[in-house]
Amino acid sequence: MYAPLFSKLDHLLVETRNFWQFMPFAETPAAWEADHPALYQWLMALTDDEVAYYLSDSTALSEALRTWIPQADALTALTDVPALAHIERETPRGLDTGIPGRKWSQLQAFNGVLPALSLPWLEWCAGKGFLGRVLHATHQTPVVSLEWQQALCESGDEAAKKLGLDMTFVQGDAFSPDSEQYIQPQQHAVALHACGDLHVSLLQRVAAKQGQAVSISPCCYHLIRDKAYQPLSQGAKQSALQLSKHDLRLPLQETVTAGNRVRNLRFIEVSFRLGFDSLQRAVRAQDTYMPVPNVQKALLNDGFEAFCLWAAEQKGLTLPAGIDFAHWQQQGEMRFYWVERLELLRQLFRRPLEMWLVYDRACFMEEAGYQVTVGTFCDKPITPRNLLIHAEIVSPWTPTP
Ligand SMILES: C[S@@+](CC[C@H](N)C(=O)[O-])C[C@H]1O[C@@H](n2cnc3c(N)ncnc32)[C@H](O)[C@@H]1O
Question: Is the pLDDT reported for residue 371 higher than 80?
Answer without folding.
Answer: yes
